[in-house]
């Protein structure tokens, strides 16, 4: 299913993985930026860049090796994804069809694996899974990350019904904030230090 970016309706607002990641970092950040329309200064918020610069430096070597290792029978590259039901969109590095007929998103990360998979990465993969299920009508119960700076280490992420439902609730809450709901501040106060909205945010 090859879709160009023109597939996205420019007159409809779709939520992207990076926006949900920002929302989970601090829900008030989205309130100030999207609901009130107050400009952001992201150069002062380096932490928000987690997971963003990756796509600028993709490395796609060893594709045949990865396909064999993951029991892939078909794959599509740089696939535009969308969920009309949830109002989300994104572009995944690869959509894999596996031997058991399930499907899986695969994303390349220009990063090193340090015995931990960031929640931001998991959120992104689960969003891709939700869109793949809707677009392809297929089951998605796993996803993959390829860490390019470790010689292409592949890590599998389990995608459960619970994790899908949790993310759906987060998307709903995001939409509530766009309608004017003022969310609670993050409980991690260290995140407020480099936030461009710290001088106007009621703690």
From TrEMBL:
InterPro entries: Cas4_exonuclease, CRISPR-assoc_prot_Cas4, Dna2/Cas4_DUF83, PDDEXK-like_dom_sf
GO biological process terms on file: defense response to virus
Keywords recorded for this protein, A-Z: Antiviral defense, Exonuclease, Hydrolase, Iron, Iron-sulfur, Manganese, Metal-binding, Nuclease
Cofactor(s) of this protein: Mg(2+); Mn(2+); [4Fe-4S] cluster; iron-sulfur cluster
Keyword presence, Iron: yes
GO molecular function ontology, one term from the record: iron-sulfur cluster binding
EC class name: hydrolase
Record domain DUF83: where: 18-202
Statement: the UniProt record of this protein carries the keyword Phosphoprotein: no
Superkingdom, taxonomy of origin: Bacteria
Cofactor info, note text: Mg(2+) or Mn(2+) required for ssDNA cleavage activity.
Enzyme Commission number(s) of this protein: 3.1.12.1
Family that this chain belongs to: Belongs to the CRISPR-associated exonuclease Cas4 family.
Function: CRISPR (clustered regularly interspaced short palindromic repeat) is an adaptive immune system that provides protection against mobile genetic elements (viruses, transposable elements and conjugative plasmids). CRISPR clusters contain sequences complementary to antecedent mobile elements and target invading nucleic acids. CRISPR clusters are transcribed and processed into CRISPR RNA (crRNA).
Classification via PANTHER family: CRISPR-ASSOCIATED EXONUCLEASE CAS4, DNA REPLICATION ATP-DEPENDENT HELICASE_NUCLEASE DNA2
Descriptive protein name: CRISPR-associated exonuclease Cas4
Organism this protein belongs to: Tepidibacter formicigenes DSM 15518
């Amino acid at each position: 299913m090859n879709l160009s970016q023109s597939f996205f309706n420019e007159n409809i607002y779709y939520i992207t993985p990076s926006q949900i990641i920002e929302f989970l970092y601090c829900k008030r950040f989205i309130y100030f930026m999207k609901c009130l329309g107050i400009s952001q200064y992201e150069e002062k918020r380096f932490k928000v860049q987690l997971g963003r610069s990756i796509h600028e430096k993709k490395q796609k070597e060893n594709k045949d090796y990865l396909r064999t290792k993951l029991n892939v029978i078909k794959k599509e590259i740089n696939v535009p994804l969308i969920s009309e039901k949830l109002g989300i969109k994104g572009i995944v590095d690869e959509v894999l069809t596996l031997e058991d007929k399930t499907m899986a998103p695969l994303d390349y990360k220009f990063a090193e694996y340090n015995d931990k998979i960031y929640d931001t990465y998991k959120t992104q993969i689960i969003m891709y899974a939700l869109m793949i299920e809707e677009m392809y009508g297929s089951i998605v119960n796993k996803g993959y990350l390829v860490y390019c700076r470790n010689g292409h280490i592949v890590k599998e992420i389990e995608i459960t019904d619970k994790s899908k439902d949790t993310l759906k609730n987060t998307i709903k809450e995001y939409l509530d904030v766009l309608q004017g709901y003022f969310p609670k501040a993050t409980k991690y106060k260290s995140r407020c230090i480099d936030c461009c909205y710290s001088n106007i945010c009621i703690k």
